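Write out the 3D structure for:
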Amino acid sequence: MQKITATRTQWHHIIIIICIGISTAFYIGKVPPALPFIRSELEMDLVTAGWVVSIFNALGTIIGIAVGLLADRIGPGRVITVSLIILPLASVMGSFSGSVEILLCSRVLEGIGYASIFVAGPALIALMVSEKERAAAVSLWSSTTPIGMTLAVVLAPILLEPFGWRSLWIGTALFSLGIFAIFQRTIVPELRPIPKRTVTPWRHVKTTVTKLGPCLLAIAFMTYTFQWMAIMVWLPTFVMEERELKIGIAAILAATAIAVNIPGNWFGSWLVHKGMARWTIITIGSSAMGISSLLIFSDSFPDNFRYGMILVFSFLGGLQPAALISGTTFHTPTPAQLGATNGLLYQGSQCGQFFGPPAIAIIVTTTGVWETAGVLLFALTLINITIAIAIRYLELA
């Protein structure tokens, strides 16, 4: 399905699509505050807990481009519709899991729905905006993840403490079903079948992955999500197990750290709208994340200062997704490959989310100290700065 050509921006529909992204991000945000409860009930070690978080992104590391092709072929609206059915069903399945294996399987299914929506969402937004406002409107999608995660982390203790983590899984499913109903009532009736394409899907893949621009965007998004998720996922566990704080305080600290990423995303969207060079935005955001990572994990500084660095890390780091997502409209080979380009970008994002949390868990478990994690995150910043320079030359060529 495809939106009838938009000569002006359909902002009321864009808000609904952004709400879909927010509800989908609940499936990431529900896990960090619930991990201590899940670990206790299912007798799970730190590394296995890391996989409960990251296996959510397992298939997303593989199917991103395929979902993008599907969105190009049948329309992003249909992809979103199916995904909004998969997500609550998988969450209900997870709520009844009696073992780690079943919980992991449910997380894989949730990840399929998440990846599909996060590929199709920006593509559907692009169909509903005027060409002049397209980059800025699409870049707003970057704020859906921190908003959804923040709401999930803040609301999670309401269900966790009295009813346990399984109630949180059921509540998330019900929220998705509500969003599904709104989407079906408001946007779906205005969608129509897209014209049949004569070009084979794999031609779109070849055209996309052989271009340097989309590949650089995907790698940069991978390093960003690796860094950001690694810290945000483990923050509640760290403050509860290392500092012996209660779930309520841990949730507030984590939610605040995630929430400051939202104005960072909006600031990045504003900079994109004002015409700041993409490579500059990426360089500023990545440099801030790398430097603050070294300070966050250093025992040489008091906890208040280290938490302040987490806020800096999240806010300035939030500049990057807006620049990267808006870059798909510039670097896609042709409009016909927009879905494939979005798919490649989110495949990179999913790779970062997949490897980040368990990598940190393995490093901390092996070395016995959290400080070594900061060195790894700083190294990833060096990669992103190099990519930003390469993007500069591509966009000035």
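Residues 212-241 form the longest helix (30 residues).
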